[in-house]
Amino acid sequence: MAAGAVSALFLLDIKGRVLVWRDYRGDVSALQAERFFTKLLDKESDAEVLSPVVHDDAGVSYMFIQHNNVFLLTASRQNCNAASIILFLHRVVDVFKHYFEELEEESLRDNFVVVYELLDEMMDFGYPQYTEAMILSEFIKTDAYRMEVFLDVVESVNILVNSNGQIVRSDVIGELKMRTFLSGMPECKLGLNDRVLLEAQGRATKGKAIDLDDIKFHQCVRLARFENDRTISFIPPDGSFDLMTYRLSTQVKPLIWVEAQVEKHSRSRIQITVKARSQFKERSTATNVEIEVPVPEDSTNPNIRTSMGSAAYAPERDAMVWKIKSFPGGKVRYLKIIEKSGYQALPWVRYITMAGLQGGIYRGNSDGHSFAGWAPEASWFRLAQARKAADSHVIDFTHVLLFDHVRLVHDMKCAAAKPLPPRACLVACLRFP
């Protein structure tokens, strides 16, 4: 016997109010959402584990999931395959996130026309149909906003430091994430300061070139061309995707060096002094630096003083969190968009650098010996300086380095911001019960 069909699909807010609903078979009404939410509240009052399947006395079965502040709910009078419908609802979430970045109440209200189009295509007379975002993008398109391309360079820096402050091991794991809003099928070219490419072009590589290892590309990249001349050429799909991932095994100079010293004053009191020193040029600024200082689990009444930024004790993390406004990361050499139809496109490049697996301050001994490490949380800034070439409507990002470790690109809008001083200091006194 074939599995039953879904009668209707509802999108509800956190209070059970209907945001969007689509009737597929005409055998249920919009009141089913109210009945479902009443049943849901009754089940939540029980101590039992909440089931994703709810039944009512009128012979209607409800299957639902919750994502952020939205309930995705199906109602059916037939015997449906519950696992299949729950999986379908998760695929609906993935499709909406592809179109709207995030599925929440506000994004549904702002894009309700597209939501109805997607619901019509994803389910036909109560049976799931298309659930692949890339396939749906072929015939349900959103208007490209100002012909834009967004590129995020996300680099996680892993550094292992010994008790003497020497770097034992370091590497960088990088990702290039793209989000495109382009009409037609433009060709994009991405250039990096790859040592192999620069040497093949006969250009100087001292100080700028890097060796990329473990490179993985999205399926849209022309691999044959990359193998031939190291050019990353591709026709990007609509929406968000990971263009490439890579690893840098070169010695990394920490952008922010942290030193800490622990002094034991009595059996119930210790003092921790943490000093953060920037190791990049003054014209480069960093933002949202977060340093986490581990403290004993039974610490009480911390007294914290900082020379800049703010610090707070986080007992749930057994740590003090020190936040400072400052810190940049990786960079791209250039990004070009070529479209024969002649329209203008605007690329945006964002740079994100965060602590990797070994990021963070390493706990020191209580005998006064210092320990070292680093712990930037994450930061980003955007470079919106574009140059239009004389032909082919090429937009070119130049003078951008992938990971120079010393020379850092700076946001033109943040040039007047106060840079991180050479040193910043935090002193914390802890007492134990």
UniProtKB/TrEMBL annotation:
SUPFAM superfamilies per the UniProt record, alphabetical: Second domain of Mu2 adaptin subunit (ap50) of ap2 adaptor, SNARE-like
CDD domains: AP-1_Mu1_Cterm, AP1_Mu_N
Principal localisation: membrane
GO cellular component: clathrin adaptor complex; clathrin-coated vesicle membrane
Biological process (GO), any one: intracellular protein transport
Cell location: Cytoplasmic vesicle, Clathrin-coated vesicle membrane
InterPro entries: Adaptor_comp_med_subunit, AP2_Mu_C_sf, Clathrin_mu, Clathrin_mu_CS, Longin-like_dom_sf, MHD
Alphabetical UniProt keywords: Cytoplasmic vesicle, Membrane, Protein transport, Transport
Keyword Transmembrane attached: no
Span of domain MHD: 146-393
Keyword Lipid metabolism in annotation: no
Similarity section: Belongs to the adaptor complexes medium subunit family.
Complex formation: Adaptor protein complex 1 (AP-1) is a heterotetramer composed of two large adaptins (gamma-type subunit and beta-type subunit), a medium adaptin (mu-type subunit) and a small adaptin (sigma-type subunit).
The protein's name: MHD domain-containing protein
Provenance organism: Oryza punctata (Red rice)
Record lineage: Eukaryota, Viridiplantae, Streptophyta, Embryophyta, Tracheophyta
